[in-house]
Amino acid sequence: MKKQTLTLFLTMLMIVSWLGMANSVSSVNINQTTMKVAIVYSTGGVGDQSFNAAALRGIQAAQATYGSNLEVVQACDVACDYPDITAAIESYGSDSTIDLVIGIGFSAGDGIIAASTANPSMKFMIIDSEVDAANVAAINFKEQEGSFLVGAMAGMVTSSKKLGFLGGLDIPLINRFGAGYEHGARYMDRDISVTVEYSPNPDNPWGDLDGGALVAESMIQSGIDIIYAAAGGTGIGVFNAVAEQNAAQTENQYYGIGVDSDQDHISPGNVLASMIKKVDVAVEGNIVDLMESTWSAGIVRLGLADNGVDISPMTYTPTEKNAEYNSTHTRWEVIEGLKQQIINGAITVAEDFSEVDSLLPAVPGASSSESDDGRIPYPAFYAFLSFIALVSIIRIKKRN
Amino acid sequence: MTINNLKELQLKSKLGKLLKIPVIGPILKLMIILEVIVLFPYILNIFFYGVIYPIPYHRQMWSLLLSTFVFEQTLRAAIPILLTAMGGTFNERAGVINIGLEGIMLVGAWVGVYTAIITGDPWFAALMAMIAGGILGLIHGILSITFKAEQITVGVAINLFALGLVKVLSELVWQAQYSPQLDPEYKFQRLYLLKKPILGNILKYFTFSNYYTVPVIGPFLMKLPDIVTALSNQHILILIALGLIPILHILLFKTSIGLRIRVIGENPQAAATAGIAVKRYQFFAVILSGVLAGLGGATLSIGNNSSFKENMIGGRGFIAIAALIFGNWTIIGAATASLFFGLFIALNINFNSAVDHFYVPKPFIQMIPYLATIFALSGFIGKSRPPKSIGKPYDPSED
């Protein structure tokens, strides 16, 4: 009797516990569990009005959607240094209560690589860095496609047919901006020339206001009227120089072009347009993927088709935006058309300066004769060297 | 072979004799220096690209070096460094090392922009930047002169303090790492004196471009930088800084105040014995240095530019220290060295567009002035001698 009661009791306990387990499993499927996301901002902090600010917008949008189901912890929201970023990512990466660690910008690269190898079960996301690992979603952008649009706009606006590009450093990431810009401008008008310069102080490529202003002056001196600056804070120096030139004279109108976020408001009327990288869309999309359990690792490139890059709405330069390009279309309609063509795949945008010429439609009769490279032929150089050696030997012998 | 032997040999040679001729000598010296500046990048280019034809290279390079535009940009790039270096010279001549110039410039730049946004008056903004720099100089003085703290440590502390302060203040005031752009009227605008009604007509007679059509000297003048045009296109702070060079030189080397400062830097005990109030003069020098560094920062933010960004100084304060060492602790030397450094900033920007087949990476061009500083310090170019008691806090109880 006693034994039977005990068996019955145990069986009931087992059934109840199974039911309980089944119940808890089903509750996962119906209601979302609370997810915890950690975000580590890049060096500038959320006050950079650029990348980090956009990432914060993405986080806020995701929080508005999921409310209390999404818990966010953040580090480096006030400016911090490179080692701090790495340390913050590593400490979040080893914290088992966190589901996803987000790093912004390539300054997070080392931290993400170290933390993702140390914690293979943790999920990581990084913006603007090609980290190839099984648990890292590396979100990159097709900057060339957005730059193509601002380049096309610049190509329609310019009156001197000379454009300038100021990059921060001579690296493939920055050259994608420049190549798209040159492609876009020369797509509109084959005769446009694009001068490429890089930040004059490589120690401080993203914050050298005065260097940017000096480069812009030098470009304006040589007849360039629109300068696209893909150089962070150095680009603000370009806007300063452009604003100064516009205030000093009225014959020519000079423009800067902003980058990464909508920078048109920084110098109203002096910034023609901006190439926007939608970091907020990328961050929000990744969190949504995590919440809906569709998250996957791998390197992704977001282009115009994925709403990853775009041209700013040109709030402060409406006359240039709505000017007539030809009898049927305004400039903005042309840009909209180009956007569709890129999304359709009708236009492939150059990723490097060397690709621009081959991707432009061929011009009949244009001779592609390579000019001389300016090098002295090596035999001549060696002959010259041996001549100097001979003369000096003779002189030394005479002296003795 | 010692350096003295080398000098004797130099003086005995034909070139040495030529360099001693009154007018031609200095011009020849300048040309030799410029030719070294031209040749060094050529040699670097051999490693990065190949041996290019020297004659077109020389033609392009010399026309770049002597162009009005490069001269204009040299002044613009050099003046913040020049002001700071001149102040630093006073500081070091009084026996106090000031590594904190970078931080003082940063605070000066911030205060300049902030005041200009609030009041709309660039003159008042420049004054406030100078006062802010003076206060930081005073803090440096109190710590290193009154409390005899290690001067380098105090300087580093001031740099870190300034960086943190500026970040916090920017976040508080603008909620961003950089300021909004100033209205053109709120900053020191370029003067364009040649376009002014009466003054322009007078100044026109001093520009080279007015004489380009004169038969013999016209084509010659066309090749030279047009100094008056370049000066008249600058904003007023640049002209003020250039005017300060002779004033500060006279103050340091021709007045009793300057003499006392220099004596204190050499031997403070002897100066005290002679009845000089050592600490008072040291304070004067440190505060003057802070004021000038603050003005240098303001020149960057409300003169050359019209906004502030937290890393906009980017080492210019340290370049100023290098310049004053390169200038052998004299005002004229520091000014010349600053202009030399500014020339390289300007050249670095214009090399690629002006010279064909030139592919030397920018860091290599940039390092040339610093290499020159190292050579100057190690005694290859002239003799460099710091003040004797530099870096040692003055203690009246020691004898």
Overview in brief:
The complex is a heterodimer of chains A (400) and B (399). Helices cover 46% and strands 16% of the residues of chain A. With 400 residues, chain A is an alpha/beta fold.
Structure characterization notes:
The complex is a heterodimer of chains A (400) and B (399). By secondary structure, chain A is an alpha/beta fold. Chain A has 13 helices and twelve strands. Chain A has a six-stranded parallel beta sheet, with helices on both faces. In chain A, strands 7-6-8-9-10-12 form a six-stranded mixed beta sheet, with helices on both faces. In chain A, helix 8 links the parallel strand 8 and strand 9. The longest helix of chain A is centred in the N-terminal third of the chain and has 29 residues. Chain A is globular and about 120 Å long. About 3% of the residues of chain A have low confidence. By secondary structure, chain B is an all-alpha fold. Chain B has a single domain, classed as ABC transporter involved in vitamin B12 uptake, BtuC, CATH 1.10.3470. The longest helix of chain B has 27 residues. Chain B starts with a helix and ends in a 22-residue tail after the last helix. The model of chain B has no long low-confidence stretch (mean pLDDT 89). At the A-B interface, strand 7, helix 7 and helix 8 of A face helix 5, helix 8, helix 15, helix 17 and helix 18 of B.
